[in-house]
Amino acid sequence: MRYQRQESLRYTFKTPPPTEFTIIQIKDYPVQTSHGSGTILNLSPNGLLLFTKLKMPFNKHVRLLLQTAFFQQTTEWKAEVVWGKQAGAYYHYGLALLDDHHQEIINLLKQHKPQEPNS
């Protein structure tokens, strides 16, 4: 799955929502880890930007199960780590959603007027 960085519908949150996640797969091997936590800095129908203290091997086809509450609605998504970058003691990870969540995400964003749309 390619990361669509130029996607027109991508929103950056003024107050990033917290998320919990577990690593569910590395390469072709299922795994189950303890919960990690982070925040979602931006969101699009195809993916999101995760900010966390946890260092992950982003070049090994790592898949996550994320649980987040957006605008009082709980969501659960599977995603694959596409890229990672260290930011001080934290890490940014670009995640591609694995299932089709286009309409679900568009509906979530319509319920809440985004505060900082990207240009």
Structural write-up:
The protein has 119 residues and is mainly beta. The protein has one helix at residues 102-111, and strands at residues 11-12, 18-26, 29-30, 36-44, 47-52, 62-70, 73-87, 90-97, 116-117. It has one helix and nine strands. The chain has a six-stranded antiparallel barrel with strand order 2-4-5-8-7-6. Strand 6 (62-70) and strand 7 (73-87) form a beta hairpin. The two termini are 24 Å apart. The model has no long low-confidence stretch (mean pLDDT 84).
Question: What is the element layout, followed by pairings?
Answer:
Elements: E1 11-12, E2 18-26, E3 29-30, E4 36-44, E5 47-52, E6 62-70, E7 73-87, E8 90-97, H1 102-111, E9 116-117
Antiparallel strand pairs: 1-4, 1-9, 2-3, 2-4, 2-6, 4-5, 5-8, 6-7, 7-8
CATH class: Mainly Beta
The helix count comes to 1
- Write down the Rg: 14 Å
pLDDT averaged residue by residue: 84
Count every beta strand, where a strand is a DSSP E run of 2 or more residues. 9
> Main β-sheet: number of strands, strand sense, barrel status?
6 strands, antiparallel, barrel
Our estimate of the beta-strand percent is over 45%
CATH topology group? Thrombin, subunit H
Structure, briefly:
The protein has one helix at residues 102-111; strands spanning 11-12, 18-26, 29-30, 36-44, 47-52, 62-70, 73-87, 90-97, 116-117.
Notable features of this structure?
single chain, 119 residues, mainly beta, Thrombin, subunit H, globular
